[in-house]
Design goal:
The complex is a heterodimer of chains A (112) and B (113).
Chain A (H helix, E strand, L loop, with lengths): L3 E4 L2 E5 L4 E7 L6 E7 L6 E7 L4 E4 L2 E6 L4 E6 L8 E7 L8 E2 L3 E6 L1
Parallel strand pairs in A: 2-11
Antiparallel strand pairs in A: 1-3, 3-8, 4-5, 4-9, 6-7, 7-8, 9-10, 9-11
Chain B lengths: L3 E4 L2 E4 L5 E7 L5 E7 L5 E7 L6 E2 L6 E5 L5 E5 L8 E8 L8 E2 L3 E5 L1
Parallel strand pairs in B: 2-11
Antiparallel strand pairs in B: 1-3, 3-8, 4-5, 4-9, 5-6, 7-8, 9-10, 9-11
The chains are: A mainly beta (112), B mainly beta (113).
Chain lengths: 112, 113
């Protein structure tokens, strides 16, 4: 079955710097890759997603890149702000399967 | 729209007790999911319902049962609670047609003593 690995488990960056979180997946049939943000004590919420027919997608300070050949995708956050502090989860899914397979999460800490 | 709602928000059970966690969505979504999240961990799928009338096991189904009561409601039952089931439980729903985004409820924090 599908397996999603996420690195690093914890990432600490200076406010204003960029942060990059990486995920790899095992099932080449996966074609949908979302990123969720979970603030402390809150529910996970979608921040950006990408489908396999697209290599990169950007939304203001957040971007996701996908390398289908290497089976990895990454989340890029530029000009980090204190409110970016949270746990970020990647996931992968196939159109034929209603499940999301989740990475273990990355705790992002923004240092003032 | 309330989105996805869950009850209760908090629950404490003794080992061996039973309870049902309720989940409802008002977005006319086809698919619904139950996850558990242990401290400092990711999300693990317990059961899901791809559409009304169907349910399937996820990664960690042992000790749980589910019912897709109608398109709106999906309940999770613990028949005989164990301390290992202490966790935060999230319900989620998805249109699962051309939009796979999962919308999560606020969670239920369950402690089994």
């Amino acid at each position: 079955g599908e397996n999603v690995e996420q690195h690093p488990s914890t990432l600490s960056v200076q406010e204003g710097d960029s942060a990059v979180i990486k995920c790899t997946y095992s099932d080449s049939a996966s074609n949908y890759f979302p990123w969720y943000k979970q603030e402390l004590g809150k529910r996970p919420q979608l921040i950006i997603d990408i489908r396999s027919n697209v290599g990169e997608k950007k939304d203001q300070r957040i971007a996701v890149t996908l390398n289908k050949t290497a089976k990895h995708f990454s989340l890029h956050i530029t000009e980090t702000q204190p409110e970016d502090s949270a746990v970020y989860f990647c996931a992968a899914s196939k159109a034929s399967n209603y499940q999301l397979i989740w990475g273990a999460g990355t705790k992002l800490i923004i240092k003032p | 729209n309330a989105g996805v709602t869950q009850t209760p928000k908090f629950q404490v059970l003794k080992t061996g007790q039973s309870m049902t966690l309720q989940c409802a969505q008002d977005m006319n979504h086809n698919s619904m999911y139950w996850y558990r999240q242990d401290p400092g961990m990711g999300l693990r799928l317990i059961y899901y319902s791809a559409s009304e009338g169907t349910t399937d096991k996820g990664e960690v189904p042992n000790g749980y049962n589910v019912s897709r009561l109608n398109k709106r409601e999906f309940s999770l039952r613990l028949e005989s609670a164990a301390p290992s089931q202490t966790s935060v439980y999230f319900c989620a729903s998805s249109a699962a047609t051309d939009n796979y985004e999962q919308y999560f409820g606020p969670g239920t924090r369950l402690t089994v003593t």
